[in-house]
Amino acid sequence: MKTLYNSILILLISIITTTSCKKEEKIKKIAISKDLLKDNIIPKPASLTATGSSFELNAKSEIHYQHSDLKPIAEYLSGLLQPATGFKLPVKEMSSMPSTDHIFLSLTDSIPNNEGYQLSIKENGIVINAKKPAGLFYGIQTLRQLLPASIELNEKQDNTWLIASGTIKDEPSYSYRGAMLDVARHFIGLSDVKRYIDLLSFYKINTLHLHLSDDQGWRIEIKSWPNLTTHGGSTEVGGGEGGFFTQVQYKELVKYAQERFITIIPEIDMPGHTNAALSSYSELNCNGKATKLYTGTRVGFSTFCTDKEITYKFIDDVIRELAEMTPGEYIHIGGDESDATPIKEYIIFINKVQKIVAKHGKKVLGWDEIAHATLAPNSIVQYWARDSTENKNAHMAVKQNAKILMSPATKAYLDMKYDKTTKLGLDWAGLTEVDVAYNWSLENHIDGIKKENIIGIEAPLWTETVENMKDLEYLVFPRVIGIAEIGWTPTSQRDWNEYKVRLGKHKDRLDALDINYYNSKLVPWKSIVSDTIVKSSKDSI
Ligand code: ACM
Fold this sequence. Notes:
CATH topology of the largest domain: TIM Barrel
Helix content: 25-40%
Number of domains: 2
Distance between the termini: 35 Å
CATH class of the largest domain: Alpha Beta
Bound molecules: acetamide
């Protein structure tokens, strides 16, 4: 009797416990699953509908792709999710959507924009549709931001990986969303540039312009002119040892960027900003004498000898070698601050160089001074003017039907100081707090220059004061995140007061990615990691 009584008691307790566990499980799910509307996606997506439940990523989840071409993206996603979840999610080709519990990547012509995507999250599965693989990649970046920030950590976390349900339809406002990195003033090496590419692609930036030559250093191996790197690459601002990319390394970088849907645009700055080349080869100088290497920060003192034939043979060789290892459409020819080149010679020079670039199958990008020349069809002019009195170059470019790439120094230069106390950076274009860098729009910045004249945005980082990756990250983050949103999200949907709250909620992500960002007082930084810890400790009870 006693045994029977005990058995009934155990049964009752176990029924009650199971029911309450189930209830608790449900409460836990609801507590953790977020309302998709309140998520904190940057850049802000075009449209978002929440459906109030969630998908749980677990060890049994799989990543399915509709066509063999998509296998690398599926593998990229699986690799991204593995460290923090500890799940080795298998990738499988499937011609149609699987029944349950999986992530499905597929292409469809019903998405109009080449970089657009539709992300649909249901309790029983996730589908990302896009017109092109680039759109799938951007859908994946959004998905990353819907997971807890700890997904970015490199060690296995004891989390429940819930993703709030709903649908996001998204596409960029501008097709060119870029950053520029000056590897000439201070050399920034391969692994750091790869990390920069990773961080930029997380915010859907699709172009990295590399400023590969300047007065202080030549940073790309050119086999037909080897002294450029052995001599011209041997120092940097302040007299450090400099460095350069071998062609093998450059190709590796191009491929790494391509896998993250980033196009590398190489820049050889000329006819000014050329002391490193002039120091490496005496014949490029009008007086036939090589200059000394330069490790200071003045600008405007150097020029190629524009009426020597050897100058154009040199440029032809450099552009040929560069074009051969650059799959992107554009070569940047610089053209800025050529104060030592008489304007008549400057114009002849730029016209000739544009023809060389075209001969090697590429299009020209150049700083806005190149608008003084006769622009080749499809050239892009990069606006950098520090104030509106310097807008005339952009107007001259538009009159020649060129498109404008927007990099106004007062807003988009990532090397400007945040405020008077910022140790790194320069201030010749003013102080650029995080709100200043965000609070403007491409199509309203220059009178008379409209959206149809503009290809997009680029945020340059000049490295006179930047010696390493930590310095770079401090000046770049968080400003580049706002730059990414300016390029992606229509101006009508952007507002600083709303953005700064969303940005503040990226604190945990920036921390998890170990980014040395500037802790601006204007941003309400908000950590939700503590919630995650509480939740995961509850999970293990
Ligand atoms: C520039 O800042 N010299 C383009």
